[in-house]
Amino acid sequence: MTAVVVTGAGSGIGRAVAHSFADEGANVLAVGRTDSKLAETARNRPEIRTLVADITADGAADRIAEAAAAEFGQIDVLVNNAAVVTRAPLGGIDAKQAREQVETNLVAPLLLTQACLPWLRLSQGTVVNVSTSGAVRGWPMNSVYGASKAGLDFLTRTWAVELAPDGVRVVSVAPGPVETEIAENAGFSPEQIRRLRETQRAKVPLGRIGRPEEIAWWVRTLARPEAGFATGVVLAVDGAASVAM
Ligand SMILES: NC(=O)c1ccc[n+]([C@@H]2O[C@H](COP(=O)([O-])OP(=O)(O)OC[C@H]3O[C@@H](n4cnc5c(N)ncnc54)[C@H](OP(=O)(O)O)[C@@H]3O)[C@@H](O)[C@H]2O)c1
């Protein structure tokens, strides 16, 4: 049976990814910092086990890989999904928040992938990095977040080449705006979220915000054996937002 590790699985896209794999019978280790959110993800789905872990903590990568291996005896898919975002213009960037974004969005996925690598080599598995389609052009107020995600896409391309001889694939799914708690978690007020959604809708040629399930479907699909010739790819799933003039 397929064994999957999903970070940031207590909400939004991560929860939808965990459900998508579990609903097809895969075993899932759902990782996040908040026990109650993970419990909600796992509710009525015995295929989903949960692990409370801050992916930026010392030793977290080894702890997560060891927990998955102990629970399932294998790791076939790693989904690096957890991330944090803090908006600020250059001149107003707080050092602690900048470090937190780089640590969470770039360094932690790197260390977790490394910790899972022996298992991924054994299974000839797949790494799916969740980045953002916004990181392909200048993005005011989001320079640190965008840089962390552009860096993650660079890891995808480089690791795809490094790991190809082992049969391990590495891909990125790059969402556009998706209806999740990300803005709330970034400290936006309800009124700011309403205005953000309006702006986002106007920028997406399809004229709407995406749903977490629409991102999860691509994560799941790219991890399938039938997608076996796709590696090193960054797939924008964003209603054409990143290709519009
Ligand atoms: N929603 C969008 O519009 C959008 C657009 C483009 C890309 N994305 C990307 O999609 C991914 C999922 O985001 P989302 O929209 O689903 O946002 P979300 O609901 O805020 O989910 C992020 C998850 O990451 C977890 N997390 C954060 N820091 C963590 C840490 N240090 N250790 C472990 N878990 C941590 C959070 O849970 P805890 O706080 O409980 O740990 C949360 O469940 C992210 O990579 C994001 O950058 C989202």
From TrEMBL:
The keyword Oxidoreductase applies. This is SDR family NAD(P)-dependent oxidoreductase. One of its GO terms (molecular function) is oxidoreductase activity. Its EC number is 1.1.1.-. Gene3D superfamilies: NAD(P)-binding Rossmann-like Domain. InterPro entries: NAD(P)-bd_dom_sf (IPR036291), SDR_fam (IPR002347). The lineage of its organism: Bacteria, Bacillati, Actinomycetota, Actinomycetes, Pseudonocardiales. Pfam families: adh_short_C2. Keywords: Oxidoreductase.
